[in-house]
Design brief:
CATH architecture: 6 Propeller
Number of helices: 1
Shape: globular
Strand content: 35-45%
Distance between the termini: 72 Å
Helix content: 10-25%
Radius of gyration: 24 Å
Order of helices and strands: HEEEEEEEEEEEEEEEEEEEEEEEEEEE
CATH superfamily: TolB, C-terminal domain
CATH topology: Neuraminidase
Number of strands: 27
Number of domains: 1
């Protein structure tokens, strides 16, 4: 009898423990469900009716650091497409001359990678590049050859990774592999993909919608900070995705108004594009800077604070901190830094980097 009572007491205690665990799991599931529902609701943003004339730097920029890039007989920059900033060096992708210029952090010219050609270790054309801080190497994407090419910072060729598809942008995943993007193509198969270290094992993360087939040529389609690779879904979709530790998550859902007037089952001329199309997505640790354009209503800039959830819409951006010219958008580099560039007062000098240290 005592053994039976002991068993019943033990069983009752065990049941109570299971009830507690079940209740905790219910609360956790409910919390996740509410969070997911809240996230899926999205943030409604009206590009026409909410737009101000301008957005000032003082709203989100703490300070601006200007760096003059040295001009030498061996270094005259043509047209900047992207920039990477390291604590000791600056890396400038010159799209016009198909060259990666390397400077000291203070702007002194050090070296370059300029290997255009058809021979070993040479690229046909660069569409994008990355500085791999972990391995101290430069990686360039040659889309026509469908390869990633690796170089030392002294310009020595290291190796090639062949890709299974043509892409226009890429990011190196800290945990291995690459994120690849051809989301600007007017192709139903276009989108954002993951590939392993060999460039194989391609997996689609986000595919372009078949009624959104407008060909766009943005400067880049992927951003990164810390160990996070971030992007918006292709074209007219406005979902912000993060890829970290080989997992894809939805971070923000922007419901952009006015809604699309047309379907785009085949590409159209941008000169006659009535609907707003996203042209730029910059994202750092605390801020998102996104630009939209239509042939009728021109430019709209969306600035979003990830910390407060507030947003601002302007028809232009102005530098109300020191009155100097706003630089051309170039890159996200560092955890909480945007980088632009502007022309020097002397037309014979290289451009001036404008490093925006954000609030």
């Amino acid at each position: 009898m005592s053994a039976l009572i002991s068993f019943l007491v033990k069983d009752k205690n065990q049941m109570n423990k299971y009830k507690v665990i079940a209740y905790c799991l219910f609360l956790l599931t409910f919390s996740i469900s509410c969070s997911k529902d809240k996230q899926q609701e999205g943030l409604s943003i009206d590009l026409l009716n909410e737009a101000k004339d301008s957005i000032g730097y003082s709203l989100f920029v703490d300070s601006i650091e200007y760096i003059n890039l040295e001009v030498t007989d061996s270094c005259v920059i043509g047209r900047i497409k992207d920039i990477a900033i390291h604590r000791e060096r600056l890396f400038i992708f010159d799209e016009q001359q198909q060259t990666i210029w390397i400077f000291s952090r203070a702007g002194k010219y050090l070296n370059k990678i300029s290997r255009k050609g058809d021979g070993p270790g040479e690229y046909a054309r660069i569409s994008q590049f990355e500085y791999d801080d972990r391995n101290n190497q430069i990686v360039v994407l040659s889309p026509w050859k469908r390869v990633l090419m690796f170089y030392t910072t002294e310009g020595e060729f290291l190796r090639t990774v062949e890709l299974e598809m043509r892409v226009n942008d890429f990011k190196i995943c800290p945990q291995g592999g690459f994120i690849l993007s051809n989301s600007g193509l007017d192709d139903p198969a276009a989108g954002i993909y993951y590939a392993d270290d060999s460039g194989k094992g391609v997996e689609c993360l986000v595919k372009r919608k078949s009624n959104h087939l407008v060909y766009t040529t943005s400067k880049w389609e992927l951003c990164s900070y810390k160990n996070i690779i971030c992007f918006m879904a292709p074209n007219f979709d406005n979902t912000v995705y993060h890829f970290e530790n080989k997992l894809l998550s939805i971070e923000n859902l922007f419901l952009i108004k006015p809604e699309l007037k047309h379907d785009y089952k085949k590409t159209v001329s941008l000169q006659n594009l009535e609907d707003f199309i996203r042209t730029t997505h910059l994202e750092g640790e605390k801020w998102i800077w996104t630009a939209y354009w239509s042939s009728i209503d021109d430019l709209r800039i969306l600035l979003y604070s990830k910390k407060t959830g507030k947003y601002w819409i302007g028809k232009s951006m102005i530098n109300d901190l020191d009155g100097r010219e706003c630089g051309a958008k170039a890159s996200v580099t560092g955890d909480n830094t945007f980088v632009t560039w502007s022309e020097s007062d002397n037309p014979n000098d290289n451009p001036v980097l404008n490093i925006l240290h954000l609030k």
